[in-house]
């Protein structure tokens, strides 16, 4: 089960990097911020075309890499948890 805490850790990293993107978008304009927040996949367009930050590469790598790793670890952790739950109980010892 150590995969689920790793998924949570990478999820938090993704959330922090997404907050950087969102704050930058809202500082640019209200319309851009709302589009990043509400339009699916617009965050990709904004991140690569309009996002300007001294640590842009680190923030984007953290956002996309941690998103993928969080999804992978969450899937593997859920699968392992399911296998543990489906295991038959041991026979009683008398």
The unreliable regions are: none
DSSP E strands, number: 0
Q: What value does the Rg take, in angstroms?
A: 19 Å
Number of DSSP helices? 4
Largest sheet: none
Describe the global form. Answer: elongated
The percent range for helix content is: over 70%
Order of SSEs, N→C?
A: HHHH
What is the CA–CA distance across the termini?
31 Å
Helices and strands: which structural class?
mainly alpha
Strand content: under 5%
Q: Overall pLDDT, averaged?
A: 90
Structure description:
The protein has four helices and no strands. It starts with a helix and ends in an 8-residue tail after the last helix. Helix 1 runs antiparallel to helix 2 and helix 1 runs antiparallel to helix 4. With 94 residues, it is mostly helical.
Would you summarize the structure shown here?
With 94 residues, the chain is mainly alpha-helical. The chain contains 4 helices and no strands.
Task: Tag the structure with descriptive keywords.
single chain; 94 residues; mainly alpha; 4 helices; 79% helix; elongated
List the helices and strands and how they pair.
Layout: H1 3-28, H2 30-38, H3 42-49, H4 56-86
Helix pairs in contact: 1-2, 1-4
